[in-house]
From TrEMBL:
One of its GO terms (molecular function) is ubiquitin-protein transferase activity. Keywords: Ubl conjugation pathway. The keyword 4Fe-4S does not apply. This is HECT domain-containing protein. InterPro entries: HECT_dom, Hect_E3_ubiquitin_ligase, HECTD3.
Length: 313
């Protein structure tokens, strides 16, 4: 599933695009994707419908999707009205420009406005397309008196730029999950139900791990393994979960089952220090050699999780 989500969000498919903060390098959500406003052909809209269906299936089966969407997307899927904070969270530069302040953060008066803001009633969408805010807007100067009208039009245009795509995603989601159920959720809860918890908590993973063969929770080798994982960054922890399970997030605490619990087995290939760990992602199984030192354990785990990013069969 992680490979599928990576493909859906890749430039090779014209469906999603990094939010503007990723391009400008400022603000929040620089790792998040939003629907591409220009992806409006019937074929592409059908794909957005299918993505919504995948979300519904993920909710029903706990087969989580590693989708990286900002709150703007999740709010739209449950019908919450978007506001200025959602624009700020995805395009800080655009939001900041609509505050009409100088470099010192002071409000700009009428005399300085014409000098600093040479705007017409146009805006640039996330995919770089310039669009007029109304017919003839490209030829209409923004005056000091009309600055608030301009700011409101830009805000609405930007927040609604992917309305068609998000509507299709919601339709697909509601074909699997009743819309009446979505109305009872917050946007944060919907994201957790579809994607799980983005932070990999090792204590939670440890609590839901089963030991097989000669392994037990008290084995020195197993304790070394947990110490290594504790020292991993969040990115390396996600790579480990992807290596072991084909996903990048853990389920909610209430959704754990035997299927979603990690199983640790002794290695089939022996315990040499040069033997890499193996995984069977369909069953969340990791086959772990016994290494002589913690440093060797870390080195071999990192080698395995960075080299083997695709699903193992």
């Amino acid at each position: 599933m992680s490979a599928l989500c990576t493909d859906l969000q890749s430039p090779q498919l014209p469906l999603f695009i990094k939010c503007a903060n990723a391009v400008s390098g400022i603000g929040d959500n620089r790792d998040k994707f939003v629907p591409r406003p220009s992806a409006s052909s019937p074929e592409l809209l059908d794909m957005f419908f299918f993505i919504g269906q995948l979300m519904g299936v993920a909710m029903r089966t706990q087969n989580l999707l590693s989708l990286d969407f900002p709150s703007l997307v999740w709010k739209s899927l449950i019908g919450i009205e978007l506001d200025e904070e959602d624009l700020k969270a995805t395009d800080y530069s655009c939001w900041s420009s609509l505050q009409f302040r100088d470099e010192d953060g002071q409000a700009i008066g009428a005399n300085k406005f014409e000098e600093l803001f040479q705007y017409t009633f146009m805006t640039v969408l996330t995919d770089g397309k310039c669009v007029p805010l109304f017919e003839g807007g490209e030829e209409t100067r923004v005056t000091f008196e009309r600055r608030h009208e301009y700011a409101e039009l830009v805000k609405q245009a930007r927040l609604r730029e992917s309305k068609e795509q998000l509507s299709k995603m919601r339709d697909g989601l509601c074909s699997i999950v009743p819309s009446s159920m979505l109305c009872l959720m917050t946007h944060e809860e919907l994201e957790r139900r579809v994607c799980g918890i983005p932070e990999i908590d090792i204590a939670t993973l440890k609590r839901h791990t089963r030991y097989r063969g000669s392994f037990s929770a008290d084995s020195p080798h197993i304790q070394m393994f947990w110490e290594v994982l504790e020292g991993f960054s969040q990115e390396d922890r996600r790579l480990f979960i992807r290596f072991a399970w084909g996903r990048e997030r853990l389920p909610l605490e209430s959704d754990y089952s035997e299927h979603s619990s990690m199983k640790l087995f002794p290695s089939d290939r022996g315990d040499g220090d040069s033997v890499l760990p193996e995984a069977e992602t369909c069953f969340f199984i990791v086959k772990l050699p016994k290494y002589r030192t913690k440093e060797l354990m870390k080195e071999n785990l990192l080698a395995a999780i960075t080299a083997c990013r695709e699903i193992n069969y």
